[in-house]
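Before surveying the methods themselves, let us examine one representative protein, pairing a chain with its fold in token form.
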Amino acid sequence: MIDINLIRTDPEKVRENIRKKFQDKKLPLVDEVLALDEKKRALQTEGDALRAARNTLSRRIGGLMKEKKFEEAEQVKAEVAKNAERLAAIEKEQPAVEARLKECMMSIPNIIAPDVPIGRDDSENVELKRFGEPKVPDFEIPYHIDILESFDGIDIDAARRVAGQGFYYLTGDIARLHSAVLTYARDFMIGKGFTYVIPPFMIHGNVVSGVMSFEEMDGMMYKIEGEDLYLIGTSEHSMIGRFMGQTLDGDKLPLTLTSYSPCFRKEKGAHGIEERGIYRIHQFEKQEMIVVCKPEQSDEWYEKLWSYTVELFRSMEIPVRQLGCCSGDLADLKYKSCDVEAWSPRQKKYFEVGSCSNLTDAQARRLGIRYKDADGKNKFAHTLNNTVVAPPRMLIAFVENHLQADGSLTIPEVLRPYMGGKSVLLPVRKK
């Protein structure tokens, strides 16, 4: 949510930002916000005046009664009654005006960074930098499910019987590899000075609406029937929610946190993207990084966060690239975002394995996350998040880049302590 003062002082800037995101249908919201804001302030001013008049008139009635000016007192009482009626009408109208104003404000996208490329969707995202040399071996790389099955490492059929489409069982060495990657990612981030956290895996609806737009909420979140609880789509949701309504000590910022959680997503409208495999699934696990900081710190931390993901993947000998997200691909609360994509030697292209976002104060305004600065003033914090690693997609990148001609998988040195010292995994059957 943006600062309403920006709409008051520079509504055209807000409109232009909406146009840059190709959300012209939201343009009328700017004028509606201006009208509602004016109405809200007018009602507040009138209400305050009526309350002040009530006190003044009450004292006047008391004086008139003492002076036995009963007829004049009755006239003032009638005025008080009329004012009370109007005040009641105002107090009834105010909540509806404020609720609609908040709804409109929460639908207007955050102002995007000046260097965000302008484009309609992810097809217009821009490659910024590559790390590592993408290679294609001189042997055919099977589909990732076929590779995993050669190790008896995955059972999708059983998962489909138990839970339906979009789930899987991982077993044996592949399950161990999955856990090894997560544990290594945890220790990697702790080594960067981040505090390890395991958050709640369910959150209230007001936290959901605080961390994402209504559109994202509908497309992602699973709601617990009959309760005000949602399964988290990423630990960012509950991690940022932790600070809801809090005023933080500015001297202790930035807060640098790394969190583990299972993640649950509807993946609405995601059909057709490698859907037979584990690219888009309804349940997975992830290591995340979160930063809560002062406004002047967020640009620096954005650069640090995505670079940590690159460093992690390169330490596992996987080529990656940084992809700048264009305006139309940015979720409404994001100021700036980039994807880290891993190389797929089978597809001969990169695919997304992580996403880094600077949301400036958009989440903080929705959730009431402030900090006290050196002058004792309360200011809204900035929030950032980034994927350390999400093993389902990580597994795809890993098995494709570490597959050998004989069907074995090499284990990079950084993962060997988490794999019982193993340097190679041997298939149990050939495809």
In short: The first strand starts at residue 126 and ends at 131. The CA atoms of residues 139 and 405 lie 6 Å apart.
